[in-house]
Amino acid sequence: MKYRRVPDETIRRLPVYLRGAIYFSRQGMKSVSSEKLAGLVGVNSWQIRKDFSYFGEFGTPGVGYDIGTLIKHIQRILRLNVVHKAALVGAGNLGSALLAYPGFRMYGFEIAAAFDMDKRKVGKKRAGVVIEDMAKLRTLKARYIRLGIIAVPEEAAQDVADQLVLAGVKGILNFSPRYVSVPSKVKIITIDIAMDLACLPYYTPAG
Amino acid sequence: MKYRRVPDETIRRLPVYLRGAIYFSRQGMKSVSSEKLAGLVGVNSWQIRKDFSYFGEFGTPGVGYDIGTLIKHIQRILRLNVVHKAALVGAGNLGSALLAYPGFRMYGFEIAAAFDMDKRKVGKKRAGVVIEDMAKLRTLKARYIRLGIIAVPEEAAQDVADQLVLAGVKGILNFSPRYVSVPSKVKIITIDIAMDLACLPYYTPAG
DNA sequence: GTTTGTGAATAGTTTCACAGCA
DNA sequence: TGCTGTGAAACTATTCACAAAC
Asked: Can you list the positions of beta strands (E) in A62-203?
């Protein structure tokens, strides 16, 4: 296929395919068709084939995709083939849930450090990770931690983001319900878990 | 403006605008321009004006949008002007975090019930909500609870979704990292908090 | 027979530029 | 002057249909 810019939407779907491929792999399957994968992850089969086609041909007509190859391929495209260390800021309810969440490992992430403003929490452990003082954020660079996760109350979000940027992180996952501004060299993704729910009533007329 | 189907993307942005409007309202402001709102929420001003234009004219040229009117308008469009009761299934780490999350109230949601498979948790309280036995799910309809939130391990997600559908919910917010299938009359939104993070390394080359 | 890969057609979304109103 | 509302243009993404590969 002649070169075309990869759509952002395609990138957004790759983790879904990766999860599906890992699932089939654990079931002991060796290869899978776009139709089968489509059934599992809830995306059309032609959409899946189109998405994969942006990265060259790696399926076998009449057979499907080799699951091992597929996993490696997607991991390399998304740069998930190396372990990415992340720092969590905020060890409250949400932060603790994130520390215990098994989903990060699946994509090669490791929450390697946790921080909290509350001095009483400092030194305690959550899911095997020792909570550190906010002042220690400056050590991130030396510890090769390049991602930050914000799980603090919204008033503190911008301040924490500034500190993370200062500490040299390259990407931030923001769980606080507030838009946060960062220099353009830093990529930020904001997830407001209530916002997705806010769209639901619109789509459920007889609610 | 002549009628045109409202883009899904516009609907997805409305909660963002709503949050911004509520923020300005709390600051004591009476009206706001699309430019000001744009600065807060990180969307272009013309995008905001376009989005609003799908629902008729409610701004004043030379002045901006009346904040009170804006809030009421968006709430009505999204059907957030009545309280929506939701049932949480799964009172583990994530479930507890959701129960304590203040963001739901902002959009008019109330987690009115919580359920867990673990009999030892049944009867205990989390953030003021008593955890009930899974068997009580069948009482949702009588209690006017039409939304379900799934916060259980992925193996149990499909089963819980089936039970929620049986209990008559109209919409489901799924936090388990697995695609779940439901009848087409039920709207489901799946959030995998790790999946968003999985896209980050792709956008941060020097990671 | 089955399943991939992809150009072309269709659909959806964003951006622009500016007329018109307060 | 300042800001909204919107048609038209540009851009992006999805869907289709089918030739080619196994």
From this structure: 64-66, 84-89, 109-116, 125-126, 129-133, 147-150, 171-174, 187-190
Nucleotides of D under 7 A from a protein CB: 1-7, 12-17, 20-22
Residue B204 pLDDT grade (very low, low, confident, very high; cuts 50, 70, 90): confident
pLDDT band at B2 (very low <50, low <70, confident <90, very high): low
Structure confidence by residue, pLDDT tens digits, A16-40:
999 999 999 999 999 999 999 999 9
Strand ranges (E), chain A? 31-32, 59-60, 64-66, 84-89, 109-116, 125-126, 129-133, 147-150, 171-174, 187-190
pLDDT digits (tens, 9 = 90+) for B98-110: 999 888 999 999 9
Chain A residues touching residue B21 (CB < 8 angstroms): none
Nearest CA in chain A to B144: A207
Contacts of B96 in chain A (CB under 8 A): 93, 97
Domain spans in chain B, listed from the N-terminal domain onward: 8-77, 84-195
Looking at the C1' of nucleotide D4, which residue has the nearest alpha carbon?
B61
CATH tag for B8-77 (out of 1.10.10.10, 3.30.40.10, 3.30.930.10, 3.90.400.10): 1.10.10.10
- Selection from A17, A23, A29, A31 nearest residue A65 by Cα: A31
Q: What is the CATH number of domain A84-195?
A: 3.40.50.720
The chain A residue lying nearest B76, using CA atoms, is A202
> What Å value separates CA B59 and C1' D2?
13
Q: Which nucleotide is nearest to A2 (CA to C1')?
A: C6
Nearest CA in chain A to B94: A97
| pLDDT tops 60 at residue A86 | yes
